[in-house]
Amino acid sequence: MRVPLDGVSWDALSLVDAVDDRPLIERRAVLRGGFYEMQARTAIERVPAGAGVAQRWAVSPYRGCAHACRGCGARGGHRRLGLDAGRDFDTRVVVRANVVERLRGELARWGGEPLAVGVGGDCYQEAERTYRLMPGVVRALGEAGVPFTVYTKSPLVLRDAELLVAAGARVAVSIAFVDERIRRAVEPGAVGAQARLELVSALVEAGVECRVLMAPVLPLLSDAADQLAATVRRIAAAGAVAVEPVVLRLPVGTRSWYLEWLGEAHPGLVARYEELYDGAGVPSAEYEGRITGQIEQLCRVYGMACGVWEPVGRRRPGGEQLELV
């Protein structure tokens, strides 16, 4: 419709016809202190393919992660918010401010299947210092008796050590390699391997059930025999009792970001990666079996278990174990 005004015709658009083409997150969230605050519609969500964890369901207080790990399998989730899976994932962290309230409601009808915590972004990244969502998440899971594993690279998890013990939580600290040059290139926002090894020791001393997620092992970058041996040796020295190895996955959202970096830093490896990975971003079974076999052998040498954690049954408040459901 055209409306004359002072002799000039203007297009008058109705509110109904107006289109808000901003990214979904900017329409649903409030930007506060550099973080996007939004209300979660659900707390428990299916683990995305390529996440590299054993659980099928997860709780993630944060989406995106300031650790900026190039091979993070959660990157694709940012695209559903209208953001990119690269730089936006690293810098535009989404806070699910009502996650504890939602979680308590969903746990009331949850069947008891084990949950992962922190798959969509490290649950103890810098945003947690401001929002402190994890104590509520841990208490809710502990009170419901649901077995859960916290995945993190951050020493901030030590703040909640007593809560984690009381809730019967397991903690998996990610240490894929001990070479600082590699860490600075592919995990620029995370603390170094030594700090994470010290974290493992501190968690064990505090009585937290802890193991190391040796993930992701990077093909042709951190998979040499001497690199694997050095990593497993130092993990054992830190007091870990088990290692769970995971070779890098490159699902949609992660693949393009990782290969873009690889093409800049190691252009000679791009073609070899294209041969190694299938269309779903999974490495060849032969390669993966060889790498995990080497790590398993090293774990035996150092007296550690190797592989996926055995599932645990639902717990009663106070710690008594029930049958696996």
Keywords:
4-stranded mixed β-sheet, 14 strands, disordered C terminus, single chain, 12 helices, 8-stranded mixed β-sheet, alpha/beta, 325 residues, disordered N terminus
What's the story with the biggest beta sheet?
8 strands, mixed
Terminal CA distance reads 63 Å
> Would you count the extended β strands for me?
14
Strand content: 15-25%
- Mean pLDDT metric: 90
* DSSP summary: helix tally: 12
What order do the strands of the largest sheet run in, or round the barrel if closed?
5-6-9-10-11-12-13-14
Summarize the structure.
The chain is α/β, with parallel strands linked by helices. The chain is built from twelve helices and 14 strands.
Explain how this protein is built.
With 325 residues, the protein is an alpha/beta fold. It is 34% helix and 17% strand. It has an 8-stranded mixed beta sheet with strand order 5-6-9-10-11-12-13-14. It has a 4-stranded mixed beta sheet with strand order 3-4-8-7. Helix 3 packs parallel to helix 5, helix 5 runs parallel beside helix 6 and helix 9 crosses helix 12. The termini are far apart. The N terminus and C terminus are likely disordered.
